[in-house]
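Lines hold sequence, tokenised fold; shown next:
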Amino acid sequence: MTDNNSFSADVRLARKGDTAAFARLYSLVYKDMYHIALYSLRSSHDAADAVSDTVLDAFRSIGNLRDENAFRGWIMKILSAKIKQKQKEYFSNIEELSEDNSPAVSFDCESAELHEAMDKLDSTSRLILSLAVIQGYTSEEIASICSVKASTVRSRLVRIKEKLRLELQ
């Protein structure tokens, strides 16, 4: 892991177009980004696409990042938007298939009971849960990424966990 001074220096360099500095920053967050995308989208291909799209957008717009210490939250917010965009594509594709009277689309699941319970959650709930439980983000960080209040994140997490607990009993 890098120290805070080299992190800040890398952000400054990346804002000036230094690809090596941006690559070092990306190396600090890529695993978290992929896990969040995979957990939210439940497709390794779509997760990789969402992360790739996020990295491209982040590299193009890093010059707009004002607070050097906000890099992680900033790139996760971009990822959140990409995940939501992919999920909208899912629903659009499902609607098209149902209009054509085609067979229902099925998603590949690893653990049937858990994934069935997860499928009953809305996309924002899955994102909040993955950020909190899998990646360990605080409610304030999640609130910033999802553009909601921290108190809303905390109350939603309680309801999400309770819903999953009831589903898995």
The helical segments are 4-15, 19-41, 44-61, 71-99, 112-119, 123-134, 139-146, 150-167. The chain has eight helices and no strands. Residues 94-110 have pLDDT under 50 and may be disordered.
